[in-house]
């Protein structure tokens, strides 16, 4: 019924916009990455130069650790909030999903206020033990910052998935005498696997590309987005910054693609 | 059913996680309204720092609002027709176009910004105006609008309604404005809230795209974190909370997919 002309008319503006301001610039970035003194070898340097390799390893380990921790938290919190009704539940849900879409810089600042030199944890520690406790500017500070902005997203996704679970299966397992832990282990968590894979991949990709938090904390450990920024501004090394950006974008895109494939397959297998 | 120990254990875990998320926010709010953060609230409560923020950074607040509204207009104008097209186009074509349009979600903001700079950085008039930031924000938020609207268009029986309108003689343009858009309203609302919230808080892209004359709120925040006393930085963060929190609450209220399913689409009422 919808004519071909109508389809072209409604799709053309966004396609033209995406082409001019996203696909074309991205192609340009790929070319510039190969335009340095070493040409295409710039891309090889991303994984061979110790400086960049260290930064890459830091980023992957940090993003991986944060993803695991966030998924563990969501595995407890998500199904619990979806399956139980109690006084104050909606307030709790609101509090847990509140920081969704807080910018990374704000999260970095909150880490400083909590674990920095004038921070709450330092005050408590000095009062309790007399020792100073400041970890905002270390790997731990980065970890907690990343955890902070990851939790709301992942909890929301897992909660929504847990909400759609078949209550009858859970009740059946219970009435057959399975303990709450056994129900969680054998029924609830396996059924939530696609949601874990999907939200875990988004969490990992977001953490890989996060910039604001590391920027605010200005930690001594470098993560890849900070390395890109430094190459671009301080090093004035445009081609290396471009090569690193292309590499980073490729990694996050592949992680999301792989997750979508595998989550899709799992869903299909379950159906 | 009687509550047992796993219930209370899980509840305790939830409370710990909620505290982890909320306590830093409370600290920041307190620091923003206290005379001297080092003394806690002993020296009294003041709005002096908020006033100071207004004096120093009011322009960043207005620029952020301006860019958020412009981003909203642009994503509606581009996104709603696109979602309609994707719902109607043959599967293969729609898949390819959708993939290209949502690709910015999979690429870190820093890389998108760098790509824009290497391509259009030479166009000085564009590079130095707020339109440069706007472009970045539209690229980044368009996928959210398209997805939110597409979800509603695919779920409501829009096709039947449109055929009805067509059989009564309505042309494509009339059908789009009087049948498609009103029925997609819940999706547009959800997408709009998401777009505005993301635009107001966007930093990763904006930090690279901004110039000293085009600073948005998050850019000003980063600036104040690096160079201002803790109370001013906190008061500025408080201003951000005041702007973002109503949006986040509205997002929880209206963009919740579960709620959306329960609400009967406008289409359902019209057909029956």
Mind explaining what this structure looks like?
The complex is a heterodimer of chains A (271) and B (272). Chain A is mainly α and 271 residues long. Chain A has one domain: MetI-like fold, CATH 1.10.3720.10. Helix content of chain A is 79%, strand content 0%. Chain A is built from 13 helices and no strands. The longest helix of chain A is centred in the N-terminal third of the chain and has 34 residues. Chain A is globular, with a radius of gyration of 23 Å. In chain A, 46% of the residues are buried. By secondary structure, chain B is an all-alpha fold. Chain B has 2 domains: 46 residues, no CATH class; 215 residues, MetI-like fold (Orthogonal Bundle). Helix content of chain B is 79%, strand content 0%. Chain B contains 14 helices and no strands. In chain B, helix 1 packs across helix 12, helix 2 crosses helix 9 and helix 2 runs antiparallel to helix 11. Chain B is globular, with a radius of gyration of 23 Å. The C terminus of chain B is likely disordered. Classes of the chains: A mainly alpha (271), B mainly alpha (272).
């Amino acid at each position: 019924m919808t004519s071909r002309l109508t389809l072209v008319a409604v799709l053309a503006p966004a396609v033209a916009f995406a082409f001019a301001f996203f696909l074309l610039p991205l192609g340009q970035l790929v070319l510039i990455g190969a335009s340095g003194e070493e040409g295409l070898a710039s891309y090889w340097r991303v994984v061979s130069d110790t400086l960049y390799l260290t930064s890459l390893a830091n980023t992957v380990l940090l993003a991986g650790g944060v993803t695991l921790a966030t998924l563990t938290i969501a595995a407890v919190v998500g199904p619990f909030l979806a399956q139980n009704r109690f006084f104050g539940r909606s307030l709790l849900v609101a509090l847990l999903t509140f920081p969704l879409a807080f910018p990374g810089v704000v999260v970095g600042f909150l880490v400083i206020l909590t674990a920095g030199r004038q921070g709450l944890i330092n005050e408590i520690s000095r009062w309790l033990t007399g020792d100073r406790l400041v970890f905002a500017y270390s790997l731990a500070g980065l970890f907690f910052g990343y955890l902070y902005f990851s939790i709301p997203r992942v909890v929301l996704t897992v909660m929504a998935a847990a909400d759609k679970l078949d209550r009858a299966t859970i009740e059946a397992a219970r009435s057959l005498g399975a303990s709450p832990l056994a129900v969680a282990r054998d029924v609830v968590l396996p059924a939530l696997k696609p949601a874990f894979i999907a939200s875990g991949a988004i969490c990992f990709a977001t953490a890989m590309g996060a910039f604001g938090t590391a920027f605010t904390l200005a930690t001594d450990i470098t993560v890849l987005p900070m390395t890109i920024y430094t190459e671009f501004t301080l090093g004035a090394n445009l081609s290396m910054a471009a090569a690193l950006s292309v590499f980073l974008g490729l990694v996050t895109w592949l992680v999301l693609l792989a997750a979508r494939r595998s989550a899709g397959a799992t869903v299909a297998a379950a159906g | 059913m009687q509550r047992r120990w796993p219930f209370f254990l899980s509840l305790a875990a939830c409370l710990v996680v909620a505290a982890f998320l909320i306590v830093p926010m409370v600290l920041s709010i307190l620091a923003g309204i206290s005379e001297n953060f080092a003394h806690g609230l002993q020296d009294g409560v003041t709005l002096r720092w908020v006033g100071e923020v207004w004096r120093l950074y009011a322009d960043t607040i207005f620029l952020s609002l301006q860019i958020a509204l412009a981003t909203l207009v642009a994503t509606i104008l581009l996104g709603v027709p696109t979602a309609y097209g994707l719902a109607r186009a043959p599967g293969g074509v729609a898949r390819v176009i959708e993939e290209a349009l949502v690709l910015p979600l999979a690429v870190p903001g820093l890389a998108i910004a760098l790509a824009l700079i290497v391509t259009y950085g030479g166009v000085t008039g564009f590079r130095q105006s707020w339109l440069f930031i706007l472009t970045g924000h539209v690229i980044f938020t368009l996928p959210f609008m398209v997805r939110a609207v597409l979800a509603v268009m695919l779920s409501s029986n829009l096709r039947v309604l449109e055929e009805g309108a067509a059989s009564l003689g309505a042309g494509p343009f009339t059908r789009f404005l009087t049948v498609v858009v009103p029925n997609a309203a819940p999706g547009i609302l959800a997408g709009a809230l998401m777009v505005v919230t993301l635009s107001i808080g966007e930093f990763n892209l904006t930090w690279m795209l901004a110039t000293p004359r085009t600073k948005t709120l998050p850019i000003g925040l980063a600036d104040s974190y690096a160079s201002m006393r803790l109370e001013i930085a906190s008061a500025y963060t408080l201003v951000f909370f005041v702007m973002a929190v109503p949006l986040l609450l509205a997002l929880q209220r209206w963009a919740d997919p579960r709620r959306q399913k329960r609400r009967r689409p406008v289409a359902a009422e019209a057909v029956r």
